[in-house]
Amino acid sequence: MDKIKKNLLSQSIKCFPGGVNSPVRSFAAVGTNPIFVSRASGSKIYDTRGNDYIDFINGWGSLIFGHSAQFTVGALKKQLKNGFLYGISSEYEMRFAKKLMESYPSMDMVRFTNSGTEAVMSAIRTARAYTKREKIVKFEGCYHGHADYLLVKAGSGATTFAVTNSGGVPDDFVKNTIVFPYNEIDSLKNYIRNNRGEIACIIVEPVAGNMGTVLPKKNFLSDLRRISTKYGSVLLFDEIITGFRVARGGAQDAFGIKPDMTCLGKIAGGGLPFGAFGGKKEIMALVSPLGKVYQAGTFSGNPLTMAAGLSVIERLNEKIYKLLDEKTDYLTTEIIKLGKKFGMIVRVNKIASMFTVFFTSDEVTDLKSAMSSDVKKYVRFFNLLFKKGVLFPPSQFESCFLSQAHTDEDLEKTLNAVSDAFKNIN
Ligand code: PLP
What we know:
Blueprint: H1 3-6, H2 8-15, E1 37-41, E2 44-47, E3 52-55, H3 58-61, H4 70-80, H5 91-103, E4 109-113, H6 116-131, E5 135-139, H7 157-160, H8 171-174, E6 177-180, H9 186-194, E7 199-204, H10 220-231, E8 234-238, H11 250-254, E9 261-265, E10 275-279, H12 281-284, H13 303-313, H14 318-341, E11 347-351, E12 354-358, H15 367-370, H16 375-387, E13 390-391, E14 400-401, H17 408-424
Parallel strand pairs: 3-13, 5-6, 5-7, 7-8, 8-9
Antiparallel strand pairs: 1-2, 2-3, 4-10, 9-10, 11-12, 12-14
Helix pairs in contact: 4-13, 5-13, 14-17, 16-17
The structure holds pyridoxal-5'-phosphate.
């Protein structure tokens, strides 16, 4: 066995800060040695020690058909024969864009990027140029990528590792980021009323996935729509998780709210690096070279991502969403029943095929209530599942995702593991 293979853990720590290339991959918060993946297929990932795990991380929500879907592999192989980077426009980009815009009619025009972070950064730049305003509003516990001015009370790894504001971000860069609690509209309304003409954009995860799964309250999104229209701010839905997840047309379709701009990523890229931002024509017309908002990317719209993304989104239909919803409903309902059976205080937030198990008696509607969860219990829960070959995110403040590849057998195995975990958690 070569040296690297034998000592993956020590080598990873030598190579990368914290041993990882993205903080959410670290197992530090659950106090366990991480696994190193050797391959992944369907609902499972396989590690270098020969173990397999039923995967509920699913590429952090990117893989709605599970790992290595054969039709995506086929599309990639076919495209490889014709080249993998052109640096010049190709037919594929238009085919893909048309399909995206069919599902997201709020987007008259779109620009592709290589990650969600880039998409959000560029969307906000465009919204600021459009409104000629500087301030933006975001919500506590929402994560929108790692642009400097968005790392204020951000969710995901930033919550897991208690990074309220990231190091290396000058105060000046965040002074125009105004933060409000998720699902709380009154303080935002007052603020906007008193700061008329100053808010360029309100950015929101229409269903939050980065403080665990947190659903919008009944009128939250429609109130945001109304306030944005009234005060001339751009309403930006970050649908990087929810796009093609909560419905084919994302949360904007599921909740019937039309944002001015939308960001997509994850599922839309078919498992390859991808992001997109789009919206009303008069806003998108400001993007270079048509307009003066500069935005660019060597790998944007590369033919491999286009092939992978198209292979996925052209296969998504109502039947698949219905099945995924039923499977997730079954799993989460049974988890709640098991909680009752073993006297565990659990709350399970669920929508479509995403969910989170919180260890709290409070209803979880925002970052504060998410943080009322007993994180030590989640750590034990994670480890007990992990030992049984079930992989949940190594953090309380992330969502679990189901894919079409999860079988009934996977769900039963998971429920057995949950049952054992609840029995042995204390
Ligand atoms: N927005 C949301 C809602 C996300 O969940 C993420 C990543 O998890 C991002 C933006 C950033 O996307 P990326 O990691 O592709 O840069």
